[in-house]
Write a structure and sequence with these properties.
Helix content is about 30%, strand content about 30%. It contains ten helices and 23 strands. The protein is α/β, with parallel strands linked by helices. About 5% of the residues have low confidence.
């Protein structure tokens, strides 16, 4: 297989600030890319015939391989119009079909959002100007990172493994008023960090793809002495920087957001503590929180590096397979204003129509990458990994868009924040989990194609 990787900084000029409560940049945001080309089978429902129509404009010959591109932005989320535009631009730049592009986010909570089209039309002026600047900066960084990935394409061998790192904790905490956001050390939380590293022909590491069930939100809504927040890649940004520093300037550590819907960093700058009398005390340590970012980020990064060094035996990727499936889930009404959500012991979950979920799959020999929009709970991904027929399964969320939370069934009994802030009704997560497992088994059992 051929592998290329790239990384480029998202330039945020001083003229952009203040924006959304941010007064400046603490550490830079990046776009990271991973471009793969492997012999294999096509993407449903278009099938292999669609892949043969791959544009001839690609500077690197496809040589009968299936091309696949992952683009990860250091961002909280991406608007639908941004997904549509970025995905088309990424496909054009890489010379591959749009169906073969995954747009992802590191899910740092400390990055300015691209505003909605409604907000831009409503507010205009400075809001529209700043959004245009931010959009252009993200576009430029993405194009640069893809160009680097194409230029660095070379034969590479994959090595798989799992690190273990306790930087995450279940954030659903029982209080006197009901379940709320905090930290529950006894709550379900997957501490494994699956990864795929890619070795150059000389045996040296070229890039790593890694995942963890954690929201990168150590500095979420934390304010400094000046009353502003600072832009930061947060926990994941610090982890990826640490890994890249260990292997050199041209090494890329690309993060895939795991099932972090109910997972928070072990420590946060702004956090809730339950008192003896049942009240909830909110504390914000401000800029001191960056000590936590650095500590947790380096802890995660160091565990990935150590695991990468322990596991050195590559495997033959065999035949790759790309698939895409659609699942119809029961829907429910969602509160229009997040400020109305609070800890409670009673809540009327009201059904509302049907929701459609698109799931994308890439399998490479012993590895299965599963990508979807909804933010799953960690326990859902644990179930998928346990029953997956692949030795290493990475469940990535907020892929090609975000669909808010899809919590497991106990969250509805507990009336958690995720359950109240979900457009998916009870049972959706279990339905999606079963569908993904069945699809993975189907792909695994397909007969290999005749060698070209």
């Amino acid at each position: 297989m051929l592998v290329g990787a790239g990384k480029a900084k998202i330039e945020l000029p001083e003229s952009l600030f203040p924006i959304e409560g941010f007064g400046g940049v603490h550490d830079d945001l990046y776009v990271r890319t991973l471009l793969l080309q492997a012999a294999g089978r096509g993407t449903a429902p278009q099938g292999e015939a669609q892949l043969r129509k791959c544009p001839s404009r690609a500077e690197v010959p496809l040589e009968g391989r299936i091309p696949f591109l992952i683009v990860c932005f250091d961002a909280t989320s991406l608007r639908p119009y941004a997904i549509k535009t970025f995905r088309a631009q990424a496909a054009e730049a890489a010379g591959i079909p749009q169906e073969n592009v995954w747009l992802c986010v590191s899910h740092t909570f400390s990055a300015p959002h691209l505003r909605s089209e409604e907000a831009i039309a409503r507010e205009g002026g400075e809001v529209a100007r700043k959004n245009e600047v931010l959009f252009a900066s993200m576009t430029t960084a993405m194009q640069s990172a893809i160009a680097q990935a194409k230029a660095s394409l070379e034969e590479a061998q994959p090595v798989i493994g799992n690190a273990y790192c306790a930087v995450n904790v279940n954030r659903d905490m029982l209080t006197a008023q009901g379940w709320w956001l905090g930290a529950d050390d006894l709550g379900e939380s997957d501490k494994t960090v699956p990864f795929v590293k890619f070795l150059r022909p000389d045996g040296q590491p070229k890039a790593v793809l890694y995942s963890c069930d954690v929201q990168s939100s150590v500095m979420d809504h934390s304010k400094g002495a000046d009353g502003y927040s600072q832009v930061t890649g947060d926990l994941v940004g610090a982890a990826s920087r640490f890994i890249e520093e260990q292997y050199g300037d041209d090494f890329v550590a690309l993060f895939l957001l795991g099932a972090a819907g109910d997972q928070a960093p072990l420590f946060k700058a702004k956090h809730n503590i339950p008192n003896r009398d049942g009240s909830i005390e909110e504390t914000d340590i401000g800029d001191e929180g960056f000590v936590l970012v650095n500590a947790l980020g380096k802890k995660l990064g160091a565990q990935v590096v150590q695991a990468m060094e322990r596991v050195r035996q590559p495997f033959q990727p065999g035949e790759a397979a790309l698939r895409q499936t659609t699942i119809h889930c029961p829907g429910q009404k969602i509160m229009p204003n997040l400020k109305d959500i609070h800890p409670t012991k009673t809540y009327d979950f009201q059904p509302e129509g049907e929701r459609t979920v698109t799931v994308s799959y890439l399998t490479l020999g012993h590895v299965a990458l599963v990508g979807l929009g909804p933010e799953l709970s960690s326990t859902t991904a644990i179930d998928i990994k346990k029953d997956s027929p692949y030795p290493l399964t990475i469940v990535a969320t907020m892929v090609n868009g975000g669909d808010k939370y899809m919590p497991e069934h106990t969250a509805y009994d507990r009336i958690t924040y995720e359950a109240m802030n979900s457009k998916f009704a009870r049972g959706s997560a279990e339905l999606v989990s079963r569908h993904i497992i069945e699809t993975l088994k189907s792909i695994r059992n397909e007969p290999l194609a005749v060698s070209r």
